[in-house]
Amino acid sequence: SGSRSTGGRAARFVPARQQSTLPAVAAAHLNPVNGFVGAVGNTPLIRINTLCQETGAEIYGKAEFMNPGGSVKDRAALFVVKDAEERGLIRPGGTVVEGTAGNTGIGLAHVCRAKGYKCVIYMPNTQSQEKIDLLRMLGAEVYPVPAVAFDNPQNYNHQAKRHAESLDNAVWTNQFDNTANRRAHIETTGPEIWDQTNGGQLDGFICATGTGGTLAGITHYLKERSQGRVQCWLADPPGSVLHSYIQTKGKLMDRQGGSITEGIGQGRVTDNLKQEVSVLDDSVHVPDEESIAMVYRLLDEEGIYIGASSALNVVAAKKMAERLGKGKTVVTILCDGAYRYQARLFSRKWLESKGLADAIPERLQKYIVL
Ligand code: PMP
């Protein structure tokens, strides 16, 4: 293909892993990589020390906020673009179109610049101006459109599809139902977690879903590699239907209410989730009060500055660890940093408007600085 970089590791150097006395994960970072796309993935697995102490279990977060575009979605962005190239849906100079409220768009904008494609993003006009500005700074063409339900033809996803169809040499990457998204996690995140836990020495994996790519892909890999031994659970915020779907073994309710946890929560079983949803062992619901408190707690106790979906995942991992028991090992995903949400998450006015100011324990109130 005519793309600028191939995504492989630069092969010119003796693999640092062979010379280094560093642990394998750190050694992986000694090898130079080929451009932005080469820097996607291979993120550290962070032991969350205070929660391990509190539960007597081992709780780890995969530091996806350390991807070069800042989130777990860099992996999916790279894989859906590579998939379009491999299937001949896009040629050099072409256009990638997607409907996304955030991290996927940012990942795609980076990948498109690195590979020389144009990037067009449709998003609901309820999103913050910072997100729109950032995407435009990354070279994307952005269309904020009225926020209407998925079954309305004016929904941002359908508008993205029509835009791609109206252009020559353009692809709608369709992150919700394009299983190249899930494949990113079958081929990269899942194997990394396996290797980072000393060859699959983990008992549980849990995370929330937006498109479902992360949960389904990692579940697919861990279940297959461990012959079903590793427990895989879903974590769900308020306003999402998947927790009740799993608990009722397949009843789909209407969406009710919402959550502060941007990027997660779902009203349907996406194609990315379809195959794995029946394989999941259990699910937990996490209220916003617990997610926001964990944002502050991880900052205070661990120096880890992550967004609300990541904090929800950590709360859920703690619940799973408590249920599996002392000495068990649970892994979750730290999807992105708090930087993209800090004007909200650390603002007293915003917290009060959501009824969440009292969810922050007294000793952590000092972090409400905006
Ligand atoms: N957290 C954040 C902040 C996200 O942007 C997303 C992507 N929508 C997710 C979690 C969920 O990832 P996935 O789409 O793979 O389910």
From TrEMBL:
Primary enzyme class: transferase
Residues covered by the Tryptophan synthase beta chain-like PALP domain: 39-336
GO cellular component terms, A-Z: mitochondrion
Protein name stated in the entry: Cysteine synthase 1
Cofactor(s) needed by this chain: pyridoxal 5'-phosphate
Family membership: Belongs to the cysteine synthase/cystathionine beta-synthase family.
Record keywords, A-Z: Amino-acid biosynthesis, Cysteine biosynthesis, Mitochondrion, Pyridoxal phosphate, Transferase, Transit peptide
NCBIfam families: PRK10717.1
Protein role: Catalyzes the conversion of O-succinyl-L-serine into cysteine, the last step in the cysteine biosynthesis pathway. Can also use O-acetyl-L-serine.
Source species, domain of life: Eukaryota
Compartment list: Mitochondrion
EC number: 2.5.1.47
Single GO molecular function: cysteine synthase activity
Pathway, per record: Amino-acid biosynthesis; L-cysteine biosynthesis; L-cysteine from L-serine: step 2/2
GO biological process terms held by the UniProt record: cysteine biosynthetic process from serine
CDD domains xref list: CBS_like
Catalytic activity: O-acetyl-L-serine + hydrogen sulfide = L-cysteine + acetate; O-succinyl-L-serine + hydrogen sulfide = L-cysteine + succinate
A Pfam match: PALP
Key word Chloroplast present: no
